[in-house]
Amino acid sequence: MLAARRDFAAVANDPQTAPDLRTRLNEIADLRRFAVDVLHLPDDGAYTRYAALQRPAAVWTVVATPPLSLAPRLHCFPIAGCVPYRGWFEAEAADAEAGRLRAAGDDVSLGAVPAYSSLGWFDDPVLDTFVQWPLGRLAELICHELAHRKLYLAGDAAFNESYATAVGRLGAEAWLRARGRSDELAAWQAERALQAELRSVLLATRSELATLYDGPLPEAGKRAAKARILAAAQARYVAVLAARGIAAARPPELNNARLAMLATYEDAVPAFEALFHAGGDDWSTFHAAAAELATLPPAQRRARLGLPAPEGIATASPDQAR
């Protein structure tokens, strides 16, 4: 990934470069400068170069939970701390691990991830896996990944991802408005509205399952009820898409693992957005307040963000898991 990086200028001056890619790299350069000057995100070499990986994803991640739990299995690493997933640069290796975990009885979610953050250790490039996304979604992604370089708290995935998600959404909207990209803003807002409707289905399902798993039914009864809840949720999910004229190529894979990651990325986003507005929509004030939250003891920090006690199940080290 790092070896494939090329300066934007070198890509633009290459006669083999498509015109739409030149245009898009110029837009990203403008977004990057806006992120530094207005959003007060790091002014380093990240997203100033381009890399063509010529594959469908940057990494593939595997999330696993026990069959009657929404608590993801945690994996702990130097520097990054404990996270509720494991990642691979090869799809085959991720698929093999997912198969092993399914065979052991876990609920598993295998995802192709378009972007990769080295958390400030390297100058991450723009990748061909996402460069031609719709402009609003692209701006949200880059602001999200830059936020990881601004503030990262080892061992607290919910804090990190919710903070970055809030920065991504607020930052993308600010840039699109500042540049007068009203059509792209409207398209992105429509996409976000759809995603919010789909998330509401998933959140309701997660709540139903949490109540079920904490309830008095025997294991067999919980498994049967789980199957009914997930089937109904899948039908509601497809119905939301159908109401927007979108035909699902295949029904979504709904299980504990997918719902567990929803909590990681979404649960504290409203609290971070409220923190931004409480500071008068000032980015420096917001980042300072978020950094102050990061210094609090975990229980106090989660209470301030409206989060429940941390969820997660310790698991073997990566080497042991192999």
Gap between N and C termini, in Å? 24 Å
Task: Sketch the major β-sheet.
Answer: 3 strands, mixed
Q: How many H/I helical runs?
A: 12
Strand order of the largest sheet: 1-2-8
- Uncertain regions spanning at least 5 consecutive residues: 316-322
What is the count of β-strands? 9
Order of helices and strands: EHHEEEEEHEEHHHHHHHHEH
The percentage helix is 55-70%
Written account of the structure:
This protein is mainly alpha-helical. The chain is 55% helix and 11% strand. The chain is built from twelve helices and nine strands. It has helices at 8-13, 19-37, 91-103, 135-150, 157-178, 182-214, 219-243, 256-266, 269-278, 283-294, 298-304, 318-321; strands at residues 6-7, 49-51, 59-65, 73-77, 81-83, 86-88, 107-113, 126-127, 313-314. It has a three-stranded mixed beta sheet. A three-stranded antiparallel beta sheet has the order 6-3-7. Strand 4 and strand 5 form a beta hairpin. Helix 2 crosses helix 4 (135-150), helix 5 (157-178) crosses helix 8 (256-266) and helix 5 (157-178) crosses helix 9. It starts with 5 loop residues before the first strand and ends with a helix.
